[in-house]
Amino acid sequence: MNRQKEEDRKMKYRIFIVDDHPIVRRGIKQLINQETNLTVCGEASDMASALEAIAACNCDLVIVDLSLGQDSGIRLIEDLLFNNPNMKILVLSMHDESLYAERCFSAGAKGYIMKQEPPEKVISALKIVLNGEVYISNTLGSRLLYKLVSKQSATFSSPIEQLSNRELEVFQLIGKGLKTRKIAEQLNLSVKTIETYIDHIKKKMNLEDSRDLLLHAVQWGLNGKSQTMQTTKPQKK
After folding, report:
1. How far apart are the C-alpha atoms of 34 and 52, rounded to whole Å?
2. Could you state, in order of their start, the residue ranges of all structural domains in the chain?
């Protein structure tokens, strides 16, 4: 009997969950463990503990949220794949896929699904990625196909889309109230480098000064999890 249980356990795909909300992790864990061929082998709430635990976990797939306290889920994806290029990663996030999905795919994720999707769709996305395929929603797939056939890859529906991954991360941390020096410490970069990112953000978003940047960052932090910022100031002449 014990041998049979061990064999059954070995046949299950091992899933690791990275999310900074304990209740969310518990819900995802219960959902996954209901499946006969899936099991959760570990969980973490931040980037550092996730990297350490995943290295020792021998998991088949990692579910990653994009908001991990002060950490970036995109940076976690990049670091995970740097250490293990064959790692399968599914992003499960409340952030709008129209802004974040392409960034995650560029970083190496194999799927992106939003948290408001029904549980059965999350499990379906999980199994698609485990099967070596890419999961993408119909809406995002149509959007990317339109961009491809119309050759509009350089156009942006939101000023936020113009930001690089690191610029977006700095913008988010500004919205959380962090000062330049704290952001530099958080990202392990120099203050000068952060100031350069801030200058790029202000230029790309056509913002007047640091106060204007702070107001936009805070506003986006409050509203940007489920929708992109659709308005910007008229271009300076």
Report:
1. 27
2. 2-146, 159-223
Top CATH class of 159-223 equals mainly alpha
Q: What does the H/E/C string look like for the chain?
A: CHHHHHHHHHHCEEEEEECCCHHHHHHHHHHHHCCCCEEEEEEECCHHHHHHHHHCCCCCEEEECCEECCEEHHHHHHHHHHHCCCCEEEEEECCCHHHHHHHHHHHCCCEEEECCCCHHHHHHHHHHHHCCCCECCHHHHHHHHHHHHHCCCCCCCCHHHHCCHHHHHHHHHHHCCCCHHHHHHHHCCCHHHHHHHHHHHHHHCCCCCHHHHHHHHHHHHHHCCCCCCCCCCCCCC
| Fold that domain 2-146 belongs to in CATH | Rossmann fold (3.40.50)
| Of the candidates 102, 94, 32, 105, the residue with the CA atom closest to the CA atom of residue 66 | 94
- pLDDT tens by residue, 123-145: 999 999 999 999 998 888 877 77
Residue 141: what are its φ and ψ, rounded to 5°?
-60, -40
Query: What tens digit of pLDDT does each residue of 133-191 get?
Result: 999 988 888 777 777 676 654 555 567 778 888 888 899 889 888 899 999 988 888 99
pLDDT digits (tens, 9 = 90+) for 4-58: 445 545 579 999 999 999 999 999 999 999 999 999 999 999 899 999 999 988 8
pTM listed for this prediction: 0.72
Q: Give the CA distances from residue 131 to residues 104, 111, 125, 152, 210, in Å, rounded to whole numbers and listed in that order.
A: 19, 12, 10, 31, 47
